[in-house]
Amino acid sequence: MGDWYTVGLALGLGLAIGVLFAGLLSATPLGRAAAVVLAGTAGAVAGLLIEDWAEIGAGLGGGFVGALAAGIVVAGALRRGGTRGGLALIVAVAAAGLAALAFVPFVGYVQAIVLPGLAARLRRTQGERYAGLRSLAKD
Question: How many domains does the chain divide into?
């Protein structure tokens, strides 16, 4: 395989690492910032383990993008009443799936385009906490 495969692999693994860190640390704004920094660093290390400078850059960028995109989703889910532990587990499983898909040629590049796009779309359509039956209650 060529450099295009290893760069895509580093990008996809960096995204998965970013999603994982965001799921574990995004309960507070400081945690979201820490997730971005740690994910970028861990993505760069993953890129270094894969091969060379291009992979380090791809892993670094993937870690940043993954943590930022997943941080938006996690913060919104927590704001609407999701539990930290359950959400961390769900996001960890999603990160494992993203990491597995990164080994498929070209999929790492697609992930790098789709994941921030989905986060931006969710950010625009975020509502408040679901009212449920409270909307039927008489005040």
Answer: 1
Q: How confident is the prediction along the chain (139 residues), in pLDDT tens digits per residue?
A: 788 999 999 999 999 999 999 999 999 999 999 999 999 999 999 999 998 899 999 999 999 999 999 999 999 889 888 899 999 999 999 999 999 999 999 999 999 999 999 988 887 776 655 556 666 666 5
* H or E stretch at 40: helix 29-50
- Polymer length in residues for the chain: 139
Domain range enclosing 15? 3-123
DSSP reduced 3-state for 131: coil
Q: Is 93:70 a contact under the CB 8 Å cutoff? A: no
CA-CA-CA-CA torsion sign (99, 101, 103, 107):
negative
Q: Which amino acid is at 24?
A: L
